[in-house]
Every structure is written in C-alpha cells, then in structure tokens.
Design brief:
The chain is α/β, with parallel strands linked by helices and about 220 residues long. It has nine helices and six strands.
C-alpha cells in the first residue's frame, strides 16, 4: 500500500470553532453599541484578526484610537480562548475520528494545516492531538491561504511529496491553496461554494473507506 499525506484544516473540518469567533465578535460589537450578524460573519472566514476588526468597526461606523484597537483585539481573543477552554470531544464534527483512525490503521501520514494559532490547544481539548504526526498552524506560517505555504510546510513535515498529499478544507481559500500546492483537494461543505475542489462531501459521514482506499492507491 502507498503512503499518502492527509492534511486536515481545523475550523469547520475537525471542529466548529467558527461559532465561538462569531460569539466573541458579536459581544464586542454589542459592547460598542451596534450589532453584528451571521451574514457579516461569513465575510470574515479566513480573514486575519486585524482585518476582521477593521471590517467590523467599518460596519458599525466606528473609529477608534490605535490603543483602543489593540485593546479590542485582546478582548476578543481572551473571550474566544475562554470558549475554547470549555471544549470537549462532543465538539468534534461527525465521523472525523473514524476517518482519522482508518488512516492511522493504514499507516498514512496525518498532519494539520490550519491558520489558527490555537490549533494545538483545541486538539488537546478534544483529545485528538496524538492522532497527528505533525501540526502546522498560524504560529508556523507567514502567508495566509490561498497561499499554499501552510500545506507545503505540512507535506515537508510529513516528508511526503506535495503531489502525494490530500487536503480536507471547508473554505474556498483553503481549496485554492491545496490546488496551487498540486495536492488533491477535498471540500467539506457545500458543492455550490467549494466547486473548485476535486471532491466535495457534506461532511465526513459521506466519506467511505472505499473512497479513502481509492485515494490512497491512486
């Protein structure tokens, strides 16, 4: 059997921490006397904390001093981390452990490729950390997706060629990054949004062992 590298994004693929970002931003907006909607939140997917705050302040027609801006960023992150610290295995998205265990049994390479700076902390909380051979997160990269840096670094860490790697992603930018890296891209989410991916599944419950075998031996 061949060895492939399977690289997983974190938010929206393994766990849904997007809801915590949303709650923390919403509370921040409310504290400044305006509201923040889920529709607006969609526009922040894959966007850095600094750029996200700039957008939110613009939506609320607010201007703040540099010092206040830094204070708001810290506030948001502190609240987000409080949410994370209460996470447990129940937060893992359906059938993710099943797929991970199957790949481990088949001696495949498994890495995390995420923009999150809290990736290790989250994986620890949901007890999945030992399943990953290597973790490349926001602390290890300088360029955001759609730049392929995060996935290329993960392939290097696994010591597997990019063209032998497979990426699970829930964002358009992530799928584009995987495609640019010359990896097989598997979208987790909606076909309408992730149509640039090589394959799209609603979630991991739709991914069969037959499909994984086909990918491994292809």
């Amino acid at each position: 059997m061949k060895t492939k590298g399977f690289i997983f994004d974190l938010d929206g693929v393994i766990v849904d921490t997007a809801k915590y970002h949303f709650l923390a931003w919403k509370n921040l907006a409310n504290s400044l006397d305006f509201d923040f909607t889920e529709t607006q939140n969609e526009q922040l997917k894959g966007v850095s904390r600094v750029e996200s705050l700039k957008k939110i302040l613009a939506w609320g027609n607010k201007t703040v001093s540099d010092a206040k801006f830094q204070e708001l960023m810290t506030l948001k992150n502190t609240e987000y981390l409080e949410f994370i610290d209460n996470m447990d295995e129940s937060e893992i998205l359906p059938d993710v452990p099943k797929v991970l265990d199957y790949l481990i049994d088949e001696n495949q390479g498994i890495a995390l490729g995420s923009a999150s700076k809290n990736a290790r902390r989250i994986l620890e909380k949901v007890h999945l950390l030992p399943k990953f051979q290597s973790i490349v997160d926001g602390n290890d990269v300088s360029k955001a997706k759609p730049d392929p840096e995060v996935f290329l670094n993960a392939a290097t860490a696994l010591n597997i060629k990019p063209e032998d790697c497979v990426v699970f992603e829930d964002s358009v930018a992530g799928v584009q990054a995987a495609n640019t890296a010359n990896m097989i891209s598997i979208g987790i989410g909606s076909q309408d949004v992730l149509y640039e991916a090589d394959y799209v599944f609603k979630d991991f419950t739709e991914i069969s062992t037959e499909f994984l075998n086909k990918i491994i031996n292809n």
